[in-house]
Amino acid sequence: MAKHVLVVTGPTASGKSALTLALAEQRGGTVINADAMQTYDAFPILTAQPTPEERARAMHRLYGVLPLSETLSAARWRDLATAEIERADVPILCGGSGLYLRTLMQGISSIPAIASEVRDQANADWDAMGADAFRARLAERDPEIVARLKPGDRQRHVRAWEVVDATGRPLSEWQKQEGKPAPYRFKIVLLAPDRGWLRQRIETRFDAMLEQGVLDEVRAVFDRKPDPRSPGLKAHGAPELFRYLRGEITLEQARQTAIDHTRQYAKRQMTWFRHQLTPDVVANPAVEKFLDKIEV
Questions:
Q1: Domains within the chain, CATH numbers bracketed
Q2: Residue 140: other Cβ atoms inside 10 A
Q3: Digit-coded pLDDT (tens) for 81-122
Q4: What is the Rg, in whole angstroms, of the alpha carbon atoms belonging to the chain?
Q5: Helical residues (DSSP H) of the chain, grouped into ranges
Q6: The pTM is what?
């Protein structure tokens, strides 16, 4: 019989971690991270990772396990998560990185490994050409993928170029290949809060992070002068607080911009969930008590 895996997902700040912790305590489960930014070790407060007290209440895996500079692809996360699922008696995935979850549940195309030299050259080209020219060059080889990418998304543009350059086939074609789904029975719980409730939660959470010392956390990373290309620096709030530390904006401006960007991200997440996910349970965390309704 296929192993059962519970998945708790939803937009940022919707209460996924609290629900998952309650489920893990109730059922003796292991919480497995499915949030891209929470895999990095530098910003535990900023990325709302479980506190030491919460980790003491239940087993948590894949939180803060990578340095900022390391790239975590959906395929690599799938391998890491699969290993943790196999170890756990009651695995509970928690996170809002929809692409990661889809990669696990539906499979991923087998793109050949790309040599580091190709990636290094692609990054050098981005620096030399600039974002617009790089994007235009990529559009000549893979217009479909370019149409799906935000103009300033260096990591994904570089990835798309390295794939087409190394394999001769566009990334968009590779992605259309059917992958092999993981051999588990997934039960998906989607938290779908009211927009106004979530907007306030995002603001309240960021203010709480400021009170908890997130500025010192970010300053410690800023002072190390990390490579600006590091994927882990994309954590919501990090770019804005870096600008404050460089003296470019005030702390209040950094705060408001970070909150606005996080709200925009939450909106994009909900759009993705509506079109890409078929949940077994949909609940509004603002009004519902549904812990006992969730059956694995």
A1: 3-108+179-293 (3.40.50.300), 116-176 (1.10.20.140)
A2: 9
A3: 999 999 999 999 999 999 899 889 987 666 777 888 888 899
A4: 20
A5: 16-27, 52-57, 74-87, 98-106, 116-129, 131-141, 143-148, 154-167, 171-176, 195-211, 214-223, 238-245, 251-276
A6: 0.80
